[in-house]
Amino acid sequence: VQLVESGGGLVQPGGSLRLSCVASGFTFNSYAMSWYRQAPGKERELVAAFTNTGSSTNYADSVKGRFTISRDNAKNTVYLQMNNLKPEDTAVYYCSARRYVVVYWGKGTLVTVSL
After folding, report:
1. Cα-Cα-Cα-Cα dihedral of 94, 11, 68, 1, to 10°?
2. CA angle 78-62-113, nearest 5°?
3. Running DSSP on this structure, what letter comes out for residue 106?
4. CB within 10 Å: which end of the chain, N or C, has fewer?
């Protein structure tokens, strides 16, 4: 099982990034996919998620209206489009796949929002 995130980097405030997470080793369309993040010195927090394997989504209040989660089951990929980025969005972003009590995690991709 693998979840491989990409697309992180350094961006100025107000900028945009698109994160990707490619999954392998399990039946992707049977899992609810999510993005989490962990900032230095803070606990990991949920950013955006599909609440099940369908199209219902859930977002942290801090990113509503700025971030969009999407998935392409044909490509076994989940995306996180991040717009109007702020310095407080700086964190390592992790992809997660969940089905009942089974949870898989990626290794994360670093997003730094700074001048």
Report:
1. -20
2. 75
3. -
4. C
pLDDT of residue 51: 82
Spell out the residues 6+ positions from residue 37 whose beta carbon is closer than 8 angstroms to its own: 44, 45, 47, 89, 91, 92, 93, 94, 111
Residue count of the chain:
115
Distance from the Cα of residue 16 to its chain's centroid: 14
Find, among 90, 106, 89, the residue nearest to 98 by Cα. 106
Position 13 scores a pLDDT of: 98
Q: Can you point out the beta strands (E) in the chain?
A: 2-6, 9-11, 17-24, 32-38, 45-50, 57-59, 67-72, 77-82, 91-99, 102-105, 109-113
